[in-house]
């Protein structure tokens, strides 16, 4: 019979160490700074695998906000005290305050020590408490659980069916056993980066690796309906910014990332590519993504052009171009799409011209100059939201460029035509500036037709550009 878990309470003021602090960096932390002798005695009794309620104290709302697990027992920290290491198991779907715990646990013990003892303490080994903790948790499988599910690890091979066994070695084995200190019978998940996922347990551990036994049949999850391929010139980024770009593209759901080599971003080292591969795998596990993002070999702009020409949906970030939302409102969603972001200093005029001639649609990301990583993530986030959203209610933007003296009559003509539409809920926004440019935002479908008709029939010697 396995060793029974103990249950503990860890109190902390959110201003000093909050659940958000605990959940960061993989959820691992060193729990130190405890000076009370009785509390230190309890900490010395903690064992690997024990669970702790993470309790916010010292505030108006005193409540349990999560559960952590002991992953390293008491050790001297070299600062005249000691510590234990804990790992975030899961956040409560709803924080549980003291009054609610009293109501839930009164059947276990009317004089439950949690309600009497002011400091860190041992709770109980009772099965009744285990059931109540289960009710508080956001998942029935709260034991050995990371936020949102069981700890997840990568394996190219998955068991074919329930009861099947696969061998796990290398970095994933080290992470399971040496970092998280998982043991036999602990529950984990394996994924293969191709949509496959299976829940199981650690069956056997030795020095070379471990055996994973599937407790369920593997499942296969289909990929996203629109797969966005990112081409970004990030090879010259320094200070971990390239890592951050690739990590966030993985979390947001990009299908692939390709380093783009340009006149202002000409190479990327092999060592950096290997590091980025590790970043992608870590981000996939953290975000619980089942389809691995692919890091493709670098491409020069000339090699990108045929890819753009074959794509039915390609966008390139260009300063001063039409806003991205106004452009998307007239685009048709496709199974795949391309996002292109230039280097620091942007593309050269020749490069940008060739990309646009190949078929990429130029879009703007706002009035400010953005870093490569900022532009890439803003671009990708917008398109991922567009994939599942409805932009039909976004305004059309009509921009008219003409000699200044002829604009006033044109503006008045546009206003009168739009206002004549009784069903138009909002009046147009018309702006005229010294550059002889007029921008009109319309939120009525009928208004769009009248606007176009007005622009065609207006007496003006200038140029008209309609962006819809």
TrEMBL record:
The Ribosomal RNA small subunit methyltransferase E PUA-like domain sits at 169-211
Catalytic activity from the UniProt record = uridine(1498) in 16S rRNA + S-adenosyl-L-methionine = N(3)-methyluridine(1498) in 16S rRNA + S-adenosyl-L-homocysteine + H(+)
A GO biological-process term: rRNA base methylation
Answer whether the UniProt record assigns the keyword Ion transport to this protein.
Answer: no
Please give the Gene Ontology molecular function terms for this protein.
rRNA (uridine-N3-)-methyltransferase activity
- Show where the EVE domain sits: 6-120
Query: Which SUPFAM superfamilies does the entry mention?
Result: alpha/beta knot, PUA domain-like
Tell me which UniProt keywords the record has, alphabetically.
Cytoplasm, Methyltransferase, rRNA processing, S-adenosyl-L-methionine, Transferase
Location in the cell: Cytoplasm
Main localization (coarse): cytoplasm
Entry GO terms, CC? cytoplasm
Q: What is its EC number?
A: 2.1.1.193
The record's listing under CDD domains reads: RsmE-like
Question: Where's the Ribosomal RNA small subunit methyltransferase E methyltransferase domain?
Answer: 229-383
The record's listing under Pfam families reads: EVE, Methyltrans_RNA, PUA_4
**Per the similarity annotation, which family is this?**
Belongs to the RNA methyltransferase RsmE family.
- What is known about what this protein does? Specifically methylates the N3 position of the uracil ring of uridine 1498 (m3U1498) in 16S rRNA. Acts on the fully assembled 30S ribosomal subunit.
This one is known as 16S rRNA (uracil(1498)-N(3))-methyltransferase
